[in-house]
Amino acid sequence: MLILFAIVLTDLIGFGIVIPLLPFYAEHFGASPNTVTAVMATYSAGQLLMAPVWGRLSDRLGRRPVLLVSLVGSIFGYLWLGFADSLWVLFAARAVQGGMAGNIAAAQAYIADVTTPEKRAKGMGMIGAAFGLGFIFGPFIGGILAGSDPHHPDAAAPAFLAAGLSALAFLGTVFFLKESLPAEARRKAGARSSRLVAIRRAFERPRLRLLILLFFAITAAFSAMETTFAMWTERQFGWGPQQVSYIFVYIGLLAATIQGGLIHRLTRKYGEKRVLLAGTASIVLGLLMVPLSGTLPLLLIATGLLAIGMGLTQPSISSLISREAQAHEQGEVLGVAQSTGSFARICGPIAAGTLMGGLGRHAPYLAGAAVMAAVVVAVWRKLLGPEPEPLTEAEPVPEPLAVAETEPETDPVS
Hints:
Elements: H1 2-18, H2 22-28, H3 33-61, H4 63-82, H5 87-99, H6 103-114, H7 120-146, H8 156-176, H9 183-190, H10 195-203, H11 206-237, H12 241-270, H13 272-289, H14 296-323, H15 330-359, H16 363-383, H17 401-405
Helix pairs in contact: 1-7, 1-8, 2-3, 3-4, 3-5, 3-6, 3-9, 3-11, 3-15, 4-5, 4-6, 4-8, 6-7, 6-15, 7-8, 7-12, 7-14, 11-14, 11-15, 11-16, 12-13, 12-14, 13-14, 13-16, 15-16
C-alpha cells in the first residue's frame, strides 16, 4: 500500500498545483463568478461521465491498467491547460482532466482488495492522507509559481509541473505497482451488466442509497466552498493565488494529520458512523464561521474546522460504502459513488457561483451550512445504531436479473 500511496500522492500534488490558480486564470479571461465555478465544475462533469466506466473496467481488467491509462490522460490534460490561451481551451482542458480522473476510484478499489472490512477505514484514510498532502504541497507550489498578482497569474509553469508529476506517477505504476485484483474476481466482474444497471442496482440497496446520497450532499457543500474560496478571499482580503495557497496548505496539513494517523484509532474506538457524525458537524461550524471571518485568526479557525470535518468524513463514508460491496464489485460500487461525487461537484460549484453572483460572497457558505445541517440530522437519525454485518460472498446482493439479462452487451464498458 505504501507504493500506491506514493503514486496517488504524486498525482494529487499535481492536481493540487492548479487549484488556487484556476479561479484567477478564468477571471483573467473575463469570466464572471458563475463562469469561474462552471470551469471548476467542468472537471467534475468529465469525471461524472467516466468514473463508472473506470470503476467497472478496474473490476474487469484490474486496477493497474486503469491507473496507467488515466495517468496518461492527466498528462495530456495538464499540458493542454499550460497552453490555454482562451476560456474555451480552459474548459476543454479541465474536461479532459476530469474524464481521465479514474485513478481515485481505482485506488480506493485497490485498498478494498488488500484490506479487511475492519481495517478498511484505515486504508481509505491513506487515500485521504494523500489528498491532504497533495493539498499541502500542490497549492503551495502552484501558488508560488503563479505569483501573488490576482490579475496576471502565471498558468503555464504550474500546469507543466503538474504534467511532469503525473508522468512520474505513471512510471511508478509501471515499475513498482502490482495488480491487486485476483483473476477469479475479474472473471466474475466480466459477466456483469451495463453502467446504468450498475447505478440502478446500487440505488436499490437502501443502506447504499442513503450513504451515496449523504456523500453527494457532503461533497456538494464542500466543493461549493472550495471553488468560491479564492474569489471570497479576493473580495474579503484582496488576496491573490499565493495567499490562497497558504490556506490550502493549512487545510491539507490538518486533513492529512487526521486521515494519515488518527482516523484508524477514532474509527476503531467509536465506529465509522459516529466519526462521520462528528465530521459533518465540524463542517457545519466551519461553513458558518467563514462569513464571520474578518481577520486571519478567525479564518484559520473556520478553515481548520472544515479541514477536520473533511478529514473525519471522507474516509468514514468511503469505508461505509465499500462495506456494502462484494469483492468482485468494489470498483463498480466505488465508481458509482465517485460518479455521484462528481455530480455533486458540478451542482455545488454552479449553485455557489449563482448565489455569490446574486446574493453576495457569503451566500454559498450559509447555504452549504444549511445543507450540512440536514446531513447531520440524517446521520443521527438514519445511521447511528448497531454496525451492519460486513457483506460476504455467502450473502449475495439481490439483483434485478431480468433487467440485467436484457441489457445489450455490445458495449461492455458503457
